[in-house]
Amino acid sequence: MRILVSNDDGIHAPGIEALEAALARVGEVWVVAPDRERSAVGQSISIHQPLRVRAAGARRWAVDGTPADCIYLALAELMPERPDVVVSGINLGVNLGEDVFYSGTVAAAKEAAFRNIPAFAISQDVHGFARGHGTLEEVPDLGAAAELAAGLAQALGAARPSGGAGAPALPPRTLLNVNVPNTPPLGVRAAPLGVRNYVLEVERRVDPRGRSYYWVGGSASRPADIPGSDCNLLAEGYVTVTPLRLDLTARDLLDTAGALAAAALVPRRA
Ligand code: MN
Prior knowledge:
Blueprint (H helix, E strand, L loop, with lengths): L1 E5 L7 H10 L4 E7 L18 E3 L4 E4 L3 H12 L6 E8 L6 H4 L1 H11 L4 E6 L6 E2 L2 E2 L6 H17 L14 E7 L7 E3 L11 E5 L5 E5 L13 H6 L3 E7 L8 H11 L6
Parallel strand pairs: 1-2, 1-5, 2-4, 5-6, 6-9, 10-13
Antiparallel strand pairs: 3-4, 7-8, 9-13, 11-12
Helix pairs in contact: 1-5, 2-4
The chain binds manganese (II) ion.
């Protein structure tokens, strides 16, 4: 089995290392990852600048682009054959609720799902671990997450029909989002996305020329208390797994949307 690994913490992140070690026991591991941290870049791809790719070992490349760029390049150029499964992570920090829209980790898995390759994102809760110099001073034990990733990669990769045999474990245009607690997991729970309610905060500063600049993206959130949601279950000590669809269409609102837009459309006379 060929397994493609990426992330948004960069190719030197401990999460990549943990995945490579665990996944090597399951299949042939290929790594195509950003050359530095690109967290929260979402699904962006670099259409207005060239991408540089640097070999970083056997079947390993560092790309000066986004996680989505990495998967795109891996599939279109770097890998001689399609991977059987794509694993993104292990991200240092959870990806719960609306995080899945911002997360580069989840985006890498989504990019694979666009190409109908089984994929999942996996993230480790690092709450309580001290940060310094922009990174974690102490890395949490990624053993549980890495083992889980290996088992899941094996299941998803093997489920992919080869020669028509077997049904896929996941339908096309879907992926999994996995979060691992920072305590020994009580078990695994399938969970819908919760709501993190990030505090809308901005820090304004003034540069040496007297102009204002801004830092956005505060980390404080007040998760909504939704029993059974990924936010709640992770806080309760469970591994959460959320199936995601690429199709965001709110089918129950098609009529409403049509009526709204139809009423707004100003007829043009010839
Ligand atoms: Mn990250």
